Amino acid sequence: MDGSALDIGLLGLPFVAGLLVLLTHVPLGTQVLDRGIVFIDLAIAQIAGLGVIAADALGLPDGGWAVQAAAVTAALAGAALLTWTERRAGEHQEALIGVLFVLAASTGILLLAGHPHGGEHLQELLVGQVLWVHAGQIQALAAVTVALLVAMALGAGRRLGRFGFYGLFAVAVTASVQVVGVYLVFSSLIIPALATRHLAGWRRHVAGWALGAVGYGAGLAVSALADLPSGAVIVCVLAAAAWAFALVAGRRAGQARPAG
């Protein structure tokens, strides 16, 4: 291992990107877990990725506004569909979300079948390229994050009914999936929410943010020192940190509980 790999110039922007993702994904993740629709993030992220793949297949400039519009449009269309299915067949919503994920993933594979770099594109979509995030992506992600936090604080999700939650969720996931990939989107939403499920309100959010920050920071450091893929390492480190947090919190709760 080479200690010089811990270069703030290399790891600083990826860490900031992770913090921005966590700002929206931690509170949204608690809602996802409480609603019992855990796989919605995978489905919406995959649909947003499908929009990016479709834009690339049409020859649109990589990373341009047209690609972003395609991703957002696809994600919002998925959110509208899920709003409709929740109204018409709410008891089967989780199963329908799974079907939507599989369909989006399969369609993406078909669109990339004839692409000379299709495998690379698919890997980038799943694992992400957080280590190579640039300032422009950070600025765009920060702008979307601020807008989403303001919207959530003003209760936009509740005011817009069923579509409110799905719409906000779709925009948040679209902004993050192109930076950190599908796996980290899922992990940022669900792992902190699971580890802090014994807490409530802002305490749960603050604990989730802190846990996520540790996961991203330590994961980036380990990946740099060991020269391993950053996204995969962050997922593993975040899961380990969450397990340790939940274990300690469970023991404290047991000690605080009065004897029978």
Q: Secondary-structure map with pairings?
A:
Layout: H1 8-35, H2 40-57, H3 65-89, H4 93-112, H5 118-127, H6 135-153, H7 156-159, H8 162-195, H9 201-226, H10 230-256
Describe the structure.
The protein has 260 residues and is mainly α. Helices cover 81% and strands 0% of the residues. It contains ten helices and no strands. It has helices at 8-35, 40-57, 65-89, 93-112, 118-127, 135-153, 156-159, 162-195, 201-226, 230-256. Helix 6 (135-153) packs across helix 8. It is globular, with a radius of gyration of 19 Å. The mean pLDDT is 83.
Mean pLDDT: 83
- Counting helices, strands and paired strands, the structural category is mainly alpha
Largest sheet: none
The number of helices is 10
Shape: globular
Count of distinct strands: 0
Tags for this entry?
single chain, globular, 260 residues
Brief rundown of the structure:
This protein is mainly α and 260 residues long. Helices cover 81% and strands 0% of the residues. The chain is built from ten helices and no strands.
